[in-house]
Each structure stands twice: as structure tokens, then as C-alpha cells.
Amino acid sequence: MIKGLASKLKKKRQELNLSRKMVAENIGVSASVIADYESGYGEPSLKVLMKLATLYKCSTDYLLGIEKGTPTQTIDVSALTPDQIQALQSLIDTM
């Protein structure tokens, strides 16, 4: 579960005075799906999240709780061999 996503989706919908049905029709899902998103019982796909962000006039970063200046996580590879580093890089690239 993405922390805070459900409440942000509900808040943005209410700020724009949109019903769940209106949102659902606009993005191509059912009103019950919107209810699930807002109650935390489901999460939108990336495609739906982008549609919601566009409709709600906000960024996907806002909805996902990604704040500017949030430090990125790093991995200390100093104890790894060059082959292990390459294998790790290949794994990261495939994700």
C-alpha cells in the first residue's frame, strides 16, 4: 500500500467537487473502483494514476507522497567484486 494515497485521492476529488461517478466516467473505471482507491482497498495502475493526476491537476509525485528533496537510497558496493557490481547493475537495469 502506498502511504497516504487513499486520503490524497479523496481530498483532491472533493476539492474539485467531483463525485466518484464523475471521476470514474472520466478515467474509464467504475465508481466502486474509485471508492476502493479512496478507502485503501485497491491501488490504481500507473496508467490510471496518471489519469487521476491529470484530472485532479496535481502531480503523480504528490499523490505518491514523493516530496522534493527526498533523499534517495544508495547501496554501498565497496565490498563487492567488479563482477558482483556488474550483476547488481544488470538487475537494476531490468527493473
List keywords for this structure.
59% helix; single chain
Structure write-up:
With 95 residues, the protein is mainly α. Helices cover 59% and strands 0% of the residues. The protein has 6 helices and no strands. It has helices spanning 5-15, 20-27, 31-39, 46-55, 60-64, 82-94. Helix 2 crosses helix 3 (31-39). The radius of gyration is 18 Å and the shape is elongated. The two termini are 19 Å apart.
What is shown here, in short?
The protein has six helices and no strands.
Helices, strands, pairings?
Blueprint: H1 5-15, H2 20-27, H3 31-39, H4 46-55, H5 60-64, H6 82-94
Helix pairs in contact: 2-3
Total helical elements:
6
The mean pLDDT is: 89
Major sheet details: none
- Which geometry do the CA atoms define? elongated
Q: Gap between N and C termini, in Å?
A: 19 Å
Unreliably modeled segments? none
Order of helices and strands: HHHHHH
Backbone CA Rg: 18 Å
By DSSP, the count of extended strands is 0
Level of helix content? 55-70%
Strand content: under 5%
Structural category is: mainly alpha
